[in-house]
Amino acid sequence: MSTARTAILDRLRRVNARPLPVKNPDYPIWTSTDREDMLVRLTELLEQNHAEVTRLPRAGLVAALRERVSGAGLKRLATGTGGEFFEEITQALQGTAEQLCFDQPLEQWKDELFNHVDAGITGCHGAIAATGSLVLWPGPAEPRTLSLVPPCHIAILKASTLHANLPAMMTEQGWGRGMPTNLLLVSGPSKTADIQQTLAYGAHGPKELVVLILEDA
Amino acid sequence: MHNRPQHFHAQAETALANAELRANFRGAMDYLRDKRKTAFADADEERTIRDRAEAIRQRCLSKLPELLEQLESNCIANGIRVHWAENADQANAIFTDIIQSHGGTLAVKGKSMVSEEIELNHAMEKEGITCLESDMGEYIVQLGQETPSHIIMPAIHKNKRQVAELFTEHVPGFQHTLDVDTLIQTGRNVLREKYRTADVGVSGVNFAVAETGTLCLVENEGNGRMCTTVPEVHIAITGIEKVVEFLADVPPLFSALTRSATGQLVTTYFNMISGPRKENELDGPKEVHLVLLDNGRSQAFADEEMRKTLQCIRCGACMNHCPVYTRIGGHAYGTVYPGPIGKIISPHLMGLEATQDLPTASSLCGACGEVCPVRIPIPELLQRLRHEAKQDPKPGTAPMRGQKAAASNAEAFVWRSFALITSRPVLYRMLTWCATRFRRLIPNKLGPWTRCRTAPKPAARTLRELMAERNK
Amino acid sequence: MSTIRIYPAMPKKVYVYATCLVDTFSPDSGLDAIRLLERTGVEVVYVPKQSCCGQPAYSSGYDDDARTTALSQMALFPEPWPVIVLSGSCGGMMHHHYRRLFAGSEHEQSVNEFCDRVFELTEFLVHVCRLRLEDKGPATSVVLHTSCAARREMNVHVTARQLLGQLEQVELREQDYESECCGFGGTFSVRHPAISEAMVQDKTRHLCETRAEQLISADWGCLLNINGALEYQGQPLRGMHLASFLLSRLEEKHA
Fold first, then answer.
1. How far does the signal peptide extend, from start to end residue (chain A) (predicted)?
2. Which of A190, B193, B203, C193 is most exposed, with minimal Cβ within 10 Å?
3. Minimal Cβ distance to B452: which of C20, C100, C201
């Protein structure tokens, strides 16, 4: 429809709108440089949004994962095929539950992922304290649907990757220079208030979000 | 069977007579107003974030054609295919082509008001393609063969009893319950099966970033992620006004949007899509398409004042705070976008002839303008549209679609007489003298005014006369 | 629109703009407002040729006719004295919308100068006259209705409250949905009578639920609507203009 393109752009150009300069009035946004401040804020907001948050040292990750998985009776867990915590995840699941590595295109095991997996485990690219959001940067080692399709999402976050707020994180990491195919902010389990303004969790995505924050990592 | 703006009066009366509907809306609006108020507890914070959001939207609109081209080239560089549509027919044809080229028969759709605007579901049905709504509210609305009554809470007109009845009728195996969790689980189970099997996922776009070729989607449910991640083809559709210049423009707009809409600091998901699945990736759509729709927007763009209409980020705060919307609900308007924003955008989408009753259906109370996160002067634009519906275009400017459609010689005569009387003291004095002297002759029934009020009774003497006596 | 306004020092003279509704339906409110202003020591000039601000034509889309009316009114107030309007709604028209009507025209500058001189009664009493009220009336309860224009265009819902707040014997009752429109909206009430009816019925219910003895407003447009509905429903509550109420509290004879 290149004629539509030309017609639309022509109509817009004919107006000769005067381009306005970049003028960005300041607005207040939560910020801090103190790690503990940020951790407290992140935890509080995530919990308000119905996520389960645990702070622990990295050395305790395997045990914590194992405890969580067996405690909740999770039988089959989908994981990536790499990523920073792959070895610890694998170790934790050994003898605890069945590990399903995401090593084939989604199409080839859609039914299984949708209907026969209890939880998905991923790492996080970072997190944002101001809004209580995890930042996920899915890729070949940890595909997008790991954090979306199974009814429970277990996310592992390194405290050192925490940022005060979204604009700060964007600027610091230069997101404007190029973005991955998919970048996500997750601030709790899936929810809806579409029926009579009554909040219900697990609308389509995970009903549970479990966040393990590694304080010394 | 669907409502039309041409029948606004009748539709409004029907809605007003429906006590359950009135209660549903009052409850919902109270809830949403409360949420917004809590989110903007600090007045300074509210003011400054609105300053920022308004500045961003105005700047981006001022460069609209350039930003659209930049968006297009960056999307293409990212592997997103970009299509342009001047109207609903062209947009639907693009959808049909893409879906049929994949032999698709089932599309799942995340919430998109633009897709409502082009009546996508209906158009696809004609082509043998099922287009299933997956947002919980939209799903409910589609089951009932209705349209959304609110832009962010589509099923807000229904209470849980009505939803349960609908499920009983349409969802096989549903055991009647009023438990909202169970109702949501019912929808979840039906829809998850559809995400898994759908050929195509459809979504709207909240912000399209020119700088990076990124499509941003704001949601709580996860259905938007499902639709844009699981099917092999993702088609996003958006109005041409949704483009922003920089990625850095997104955070303040996102914050203004969620706080104004549902009073949330942030939504559960903020999904930034910058391309299809890469060679080595294992999920995500293999194709991503972006459809840029004009459909009357360039008409609004042409006029500097009306261009402000396009600043809208679709938060719904104007309708949540509107005393008219609160009482008649969204369906009565007969337009895709109801409430105050609907009254100023619909005349551009559908023409003034069809929509001429909408701009007048406002007491100009200003509640909408007071809460708009991007400071669209909605009351002034309503005023402007009232003018355009009655008058010729300003010399040297192109007429709006439906310009002067509501003009009437009788009304023009009334206001000419009004101007004459109010600008000629002698005439005005005569008129008020008559009104006060013959006040007992004013009938008890004064048309629509006295359907719920007594007729106004002028005083025995005007102020002018009282002052003349006082100054003697 | 609610930008912060800088108020002038107390002038020697002011014009009063009574509005067509006060002129015709409640001239006593006009007289009371003038007396109230005079008590502050200012000389009040009432121009008998004044009629209507033109808002009905303007809000109906007849800008040319509204301009004819507006020009005729502005011509009646040539001296640089403040113009005190006895209604937030007409005040909004004359303070804000006149600017919009004449933007880019040959009259732009003179109109803007006029608009700068327009004040709503209560804001003038509070911010310029710095009126202090000594309540001499008996104990009573009131509920206040502020017009939408007063609230959102003139930002003067605060000043009406401040004045009532100075009255020691007067209890100000809060109504539910106080900021919601009463459904008048000028021609809106006749163009969309069913919606207007729903709005005024809710408004009167919320007002009556306060069980206040008296309804106060500084806008005769709203009062025409609300009083008409209250009378139709057979409710005892009635609205009076704020100026009349304030004046009644200052005079011993009512005590």
1. none
2. B193
3. C201
Does some domain include residue A11? no
- The pLDDT of residue C144 is above 90: yes
Show which of residues 120-159 on chain B sit within 8 Å of chain A, judged by CB atoms.
Answer: 134-137, 140, 153-156, 158-159
CB contact under 8 A, C229 and B380: no
For residue C148, give how far its alpha carbon lies from the nearest alpha carbon of chain B (Å).
5
In a domain, A27, yes or no: no
Instruction: Copy the structure tokens of residue C164.
Output: 């009532």
Decide if C52 and B428 are in contact by the 8 Å CB cutoff: yes
Q: How far apart are CA B108 and CA B97, in angstroms?
A: 16
pLDDT band for position C254 (50/70/90)? very low
Nearest by CB: C72 against B16, B423, B462: B423
**Across the interface, which of B62, B140, B180 has its CB nearest the CB of A18?**
B62
**pLDDT, position B446:** 87
Residue A98: give its domain's CATH number.
3.40.50.10420
Nearest CA-CA distance, residue A63 and chain B, Å = 28
Total structural domains in chain A?
1
User: Which residue blocks in B230-302 are alpha helix, DSSP H?
Assistant: 250-261, 297-302
In the chain, the amino acid numbered B238 is T
What does residue A196 show for φ and ψ, rounded to 5 degrees? 45, 40
With CA atoms as reference, the chain A residue closest to B30 would be A197
| H runs (alpha helix) in B303-365 | 317-320, 323-328, 339-350, 352-355, 357-360
Report yes or no on chains C and B touching (3+ CB pairs under 8 A).
Answer: yes
Could you list the residue range(s) of the whole structural domain that residue A149 is in? 37-191+200-214
Relative to beta strand A126-128, strand A133-136 is antiparallel
Query: Which residues of chain C does B463 touch, with a Cβ-Cβ cutoff of 8 Å?
Result: 18, 22-23, 27, 30-31, 46
Q: Do B251 and A192 touch (CB under 8 A)?
A: no
Sheet holding C118-120, edge to edge: C43-46, C13-17, C83-85, C118-120
| Residue whose pair of structure tokens reads 């309708």 in the numeric block | B319
Q: Quote the radius of gyration of chain B (alpha carbons, Å).
A: 25
Tell me the two tokens of residue C163: 């004045």
Every domain of chain B with CATH number 3.40.50.10420 lies at 55-298
> To 5 degrees, how large is the angle CA B173–CA B177–CA B182?
80
Alpha-carbon Rg for chain C, nearest whole angstrom, is: 18
Give all chains having 3 or more CB-to-CB distances under 8 Å with chain B.
Answer: A, C
| Mean pLDDT in residue range C236-252 | 94
What pLDDT does C4 receive?
77
Distance from CA of C87 to the nearest CA of B (A): 15
Across the interface, of B27, B94, B298, the residue whose CB is closest to A8 is B298
pTM over 0.90: yes
Q: How far is B160 from chain C, CA to nearest CA, in Å? A: 25
C188 and B363 within 8 Å at the Cβ level: the answer is: yes
Chain B residues in contact with C17 by the CB 8 A cut-off are none
Residue A85 amino acid letter: F
pLDDT digits (tens, 9 = 90+) for A169-183: 999 999 999 999 999
The DSSP annotation for A138-173 comes to -BTTB-GGGGTSSSEEEEEEEGGGEES-HHHHHHHH
Residue B192 confidence (pLDDT)? 96
Kindly state the percentage of chain B with pLDDT values over 90.
Answer: 96
Closest CA to C227 of B453, B323, B448: B453
Q: Say which amino acid occupies B366.
A: G
Please report, for residues A3, C37, C192, the alpha-carbon distance to residue B414 in angstroms, rounded to integers and kept in the order given: 47, 36, 18
DSSP states of B205-237 as a string? Answer: -SEEETTTTEEEEEESSSHHHHHHHSSSEEEEE
Fold of B55-298: Rossmann fold (3.40.50)
Q: Report yes or no on chains A and C touching (3+ CB pairs under 8 A).
A: no
